[in-house]
Amino acid sequence: MTSFVVPGQILASTSTHIPGPGTHVYESNILASIIGTSTLSKTSTASKPTISVPRQQLSSDSSLPKVSSTVLVRVTRVQQRQLSASILLVDPRPEDVLSYTQTTNDDLQFQAVLRREDVRTHEKDKVVMNDMYRVGDIVRATVISLGDERSYYISTAGNDFGVVVATSDVGNAMVPASWKEMRDVVTGQAESRKVAKPS
């Protein structure tokens, strides 16, 4: 059985499984270290199955973003009325694995803009961009306009859209705590985010 997972997501317990590539152990739980598809494998010598998240290359024929495309973006700049981001993946599928790293190669990526009024469906005038997103966050969004020659316009209005991967202020991975908070897996400290519902 395979399923699409994001970094920090609990995959299994060390009492029942062995951690494999693309995973790490925290408090006797095996967590995903990268975005991808979890897989189970069992050898005749091991008493427990190994759970891993294989690292794969993205397909080079990724489609161009279009209106209604779902995209994964990395936030590159947050301002009072909008944020800028690099589109990393268009219409992501479980087999398209994106390694969670802080490296960027923006000259090969499309650029996107998320305006304050497109962050959520309600109380749009009360949105504070720094409470929703931080630089480095990986966000699931949808393309709402082809924009200008420099950037696509995206939206995170809707339960399925928002932050899927984030790092805390002290540099630790975070996991969703609610639709508006993520929690540091080490310190337990909560930080505000517009969180995407797990797919």
The helix content, as a percent range, equals: under 10%
Q: Kindly report how far apart the N and C termini lie.
A: 16 Å
CATH class of the largest domain: Mainly Beta
Give Rg in angstroms. Answer: 17 Å
SSE string? EEEEEEEEEEHEEEEEE
| Broad shape | globular
Give the count of structural domains. Answer: 2
- Mean pLDDT score: 82
Strand content: 35-45%
Spans with pLDDT under 50 lasting ≥5 residues?
Answer: 57-62, 94-108
CATH topology value of the largest domain:
OB fold (Dihydrolipoamide Acetyltransferase, E2P)
Please work out how many helical segments DSSP would assign: 1
Biggest sheet: strand arrangement = 8-9-10-12-11
Q: What kind of sheet is the major sheet?
A: 5 strands, mixed, barrel
Class from helix and strand fractions: mainly beta
Give the strand tally.
16
CATH architecture of the largest domain: Beta Barrel
According to CATH, the homologous superfamily of the largest domain is: Nucleic acid-binding proteins
Question: Features of this protein?
Answer:
four-stranded mixed β-sheet, EXOSC1_C, 39% strand, OB fold (Dihydrolipoamide Acetyltransferase, E2P), 1 helix, 199 residues, mainly beta, 16 strands, Exosome_cplx_N_dom, 2 domains
Account of the protein in words:
The chain is 2% helix and 39% strand. By secondary structure, it is mostly beta strands. The protein folds into 2 domains: 3-52, RNA polymerase II/Efflux pump adaptor protein, barrel-sandwich hybrid domain (OB fold (Dihydrolipoamide Acetyltransferase, E2P)), CATH 2.40.50; 57-199, Beta Barrel (OB fold (Dihydrolipoamide Acetyltransferase, E2P)), CATH 2.40.50.140. A hairpin with a 5-residue loop joins β15 and β16. The longest helix has 4 residues, at 129-132. It starts with a strand and ends in a 7-residue tail after the last strand. Residues 57-62 and 94-108 have low confidence and may be disordered.
